[in-house]
Amino acid sequence: MSFLKKIACFLVVFLVFVNLIGSEGKASDGEITLKEAINIGLQRAKEWNVNATLTSVNSVDETMGGSRGETGRRFNWFMIFMVPGTEDYVLIGISEKKITVFRPTKQTPDPDPTIHYNEIKLDSSDVLQLAKDKYGLKPGKDWATGYHFTLDSIDGLPILTVFGNDRDNRFTRISFNAQNGDVVSAIHKLPYGGGLIAKRNGINNLTKKGMAITGVVAGKTTLVVWGDKKPTQFSITKQPFIEWSHNNGESWTELQVNNNVTHAWFDRNDRLYIATENELWVGMTSKSKGTKILSLDQSIEKIDYSINNHIAVLSNGKVYYTTNQGKSWEQGIVPKPLDVIQISDDGELVGLTEERKILQKKNDEWKEITMPNRNDEPLDMKVINNRLLITTLSGIWIRDLQEGNWRKIKVDEEVVKFVKKGEKLFGATLRGEAIYSINMKDERKSEKVFDARNFMVWDVDIMEDTLWIATIPDYSWEEMTIPQRR
User: Fold this and answer.
1) Per-residue pLDDT tens for 454-467?
2) Which of 97, 108, 224, 406 has its CA 20 to 30 A from that of 37?
3) Contacts of 393 (CB under 8 A, 6+ apart)
4) What is the pTM of this model?
């Protein structure tokens, strides 16, 4: 794929996540169809080189309101022209009928198929109506908002494609021959996988099939799961839920939470703590929403809790922490952006920076902890009790926070991510293909507890003899059939 083609594709997928304000409204004066955009771009391209020929066109998302493609028109378009037989290409961007990007370049000969203007008999408005009539195509949400359009030459034919959602809100792409309107391809992204897996005696039992289960936590007698009942490829917060079970998953009761749950855990007294996007609650039950112990103006980015339930929260460059169950909070500024925040049983804060440095807060100062091997780079980090655990490509290292001696934990594979549940620690391997239970008490080899090769594992915990695995769906392109009228 040529450099400019890559740029154009990137511009298609680098979309802005916004609400569809006025998305069903009439087209603005600044919105134009695909062929109208080509007319504007072609005139400028011919001024650049009289032999300039079109190779591709695509619409681009924006936050400008308007119809968002509802009538086949968009504010923003990008297109690529080339001069056949040369290395000359130009990228042209149009916004509200005006050329805002003009970027000539050269590339090694690998000619892209060209599209002659007189071959394009149908416009974006025409194929949109065909897609609506034949497939009930709806505007996209969450990603590629509204309707989007591309034009390419495929097997010598001008192919005009419209993007949107099918009737079940799944990402859809329908391609037409721009010469006669024949359907060339109609595909949509269908989910597969997802749900809650209970592994017991070597047997996997799947429940909540197709849901995005983003968290699972086990208390002494209670199991809690949370996630999205109706996920899409680009959102797992469409129909958020949190449920608990007092009979090892045989039946579930939904808990009432106003916002999407991001974390949950039990303290030693089996009280349930729940974190939403910017709040922290304690004592939630099926009859009570509990007590709010923290509310922030900005989103909770990371959260951690110790065995004795000290809590640390990272938000907008600040860390908020409590050592009295949330009765009072202290706050401090983190010296560098953190990927991980942890708090020990002694209330000490430890962070993993985006630059992969381990920092420990002592007497209001953050000091770096030296790695046992200078060539190692931390992939993930956790603190359990007062012990620091770091996983690297060379293995897992552990040391007491108050001491400088490191020792290594044996694992058959490289662990790239930790999952901490109280005093239990799990590790996920590269590409998430296996889950290990990490033994921290001695140097015996850790145990592989789940082969995750065919699953997208999001979380894991264990209760008695059952391993609970939270998974989310993956998505693949599948051929569409023309839906029946409803």
Assistant:
1) 899 999 999 999 99
2) 108
3) 376, 377, 379, 414
4) 0.79
